[in-house]
Specification:
By secondary structure, this protein is mainly alpha-helical. 82% of the residues lie in helices and 0% in strands.
């Protein structure tokens, strides 16, 4: 159970639905509640499909392209470290609202399931196995759906100030997770050489 909790925390911090509340609420501003719910469903579905594709097929994709998992772990750790640093300093990627009401592409990916989540998922499968990672991914997607479904209420309660603070704390946690990934990847390469 502890492995599931640790994997859930890693995925949840990287997906960062709380930190993404300001962007989500600005993209859905003026939308009827029915449209917002439809966009939440679609966005989490897109994020989930992409997440589970890499969860089940990530290692096979690596084998096909002859990518070394330790090298990917180091590279992924560096990407996560950069994302964590961006969170800490309150910097983020800005998205332009697409034509029409469907926000599943900018929200589902890359905002929810982007390079960081994909990297973490593959590493978690390597470290904890499929079952633990499936459970953690399912809990993460469910929590993200709940947060986005109640985005207006949560953002009203937290406000921009506290949302920013939570995002920065998650950035620090993410940076620590990234350093762990990098050091483990380097150690694995070092051990394999000896």
């Amino acid at each position: 159970m502890q492995d599931v909790l640790e994997a859930f925390i890693a995925l949840f911090v990287i997906m960062d639905p709380v930190g993404n509340l300001p962007l989500f609420t600005s993209l859905t501003k003026g939308m009827p509640l029915k449209e917002i719910k439809k966009n939440v469903d679609r966005s989490v579905f897109v994020a989930g499909v992409l997440l589970f594709v890499f969860l089940f097929l990530g290692l096979q994709i690596f084998d096909f392209f002859n990518i070394n998992l330790n090298s990917f772990q180091i590279a992924g750790g560096i990407i996560l470290l950069i994302i964590g640093i961006l969170y800490v300093f309150g910097l983020s990627l800005k998205f332009v609202k697409p034509h029409g009401a469907d926000l599943s592409i900018p929200i589902g990916t890359p905002l929810l399931t982007g390079p960081g989540v994909i990297t973490t998922t593959i590493i978690l499968v390597k470290e904890n196995g499929i079952l633990v990672t499936v459970a953690a991914a399912s809990f993460t997607l469910a929590a993200t759906w709940l947060i986005l479904m109640n985005s207006r209420k949560l953002y009203t309660i937290l406000g921009e100030h506290w949302t920013g603070i939570i995002s920065r704390i998650m950035g620090i946690i993410l940076a620590a997770i990234a350093v762990g990934f990098i050091s483990e990847g380097v150690l694995n390469i070092f051990v394999s050489v000896i």
